[in-house]
Description:
Helices cover 25% and strands 34% of the residues. By secondary structure, it is of the alpha+beta class. The strands form two sheets. Strands 1-2-3 form a three-stranded antiparallel beta sheet, with helices on one face. Strands 4-5 form a two-stranded antiparallel ribbon.
Amino acid sequence: xxxxxxxxxxxxxxxxxxxxxxxxxxxxxxxxxxxxxxxxxxxxxxxxxxxxxxxxxxxxxxxxxxxxxxxxxxxxxxxxxxx
Length: 83
């Protein structure tokens, strides 16, 4: 699968894999909202999850709650780190 110039490779929180987000529908019409090529999860939904995750990290640090940060390496496998 090759990404066109308006496509990007992002981590999809729905599929839990790195995948192509593109602006084409099934008939190859462009200018639809950017979405995951695998599951159709929209890019704005992905950004909303990232914003909420960042808010909870800040809140937990302020409260002194130990949390676990999940890094997503290039291989797409989960790694856990304690903060």
